[in-house]
Design goal:
Blueprint lengths: L11 E6 L3 H11 L6 E6 L7 H5 L6 H4 L1 H9 L4 E4 L10 H4 L6 E2 L15 H10 L6 E4 L1
Parallel strand pairs: 1-2, 2-3
Antiparallel strand pairs: 1-5, 4-5
Length: 141
């Protein structure tokens, strides 16, 4: 037997789509959990992490970009992996990321409609509104 989910023998595997600030803070919260063994894959359609903090902040606002150092510390934690150039729905399907109905969560604007036709579409739509704005998408797998 593989053992209980979240144990050393069977870590809880989490995928988060969106490597901007919200994605990194979600990773940080997950990896801080001491009662569970968790591994996190952070995926982004851009080749590099940090979202607009990297590319959307003017050169004369370097103080704002200083938060990247915190994200680098998060990324150096055991159990973290980053994958760039991955487009959800094209490179990876919902079924590949979440083969079971354990948990699927979506950013309400970016991923609207990806669950269309799903037996739990109504629950997914409720989840969309429960998410904080810009938090990316995540799923347990």
């Amino acid at each position: 037997m593989a053992g209980e989910i979240g144990s050393e023998a069977n870590p809880l595997r989490v995928a988060i789509f969106g490597a901007g600030p919200a994605g990194f803070y979600a990773v940080e919260e997950l990896l801080k959990q001491e009662a569970l063994k968790i591994t996190v894959d952070l995926l982004d359609r851009l080749p590099t992490p940090y979202g607009l903090v990297r590319g959307g902040v003017a050169p004369d606002h370097q103080k704002i970009k200083a938060v990247i150092r915190q994200y680098e510390k998060i990324a150096s934690r055991p159990g973290f992996r980053f994958f760039g150039n991955v487009t959800f729905g094209e490179d990876l399907s919902l079924a590949e990321v979440c083969p079971s109905e354990v948990c699927r969560r979506f950013d309400k604007d970016r991923y609207r409609g990806l669950c269309a036709g799903s037996p739990t579409e109504e629950q997914h739509q409720r989840d969309l509104f429960a998410r904080t704005q810009g938090a990316g998408a995540g799923g347990f797998y």
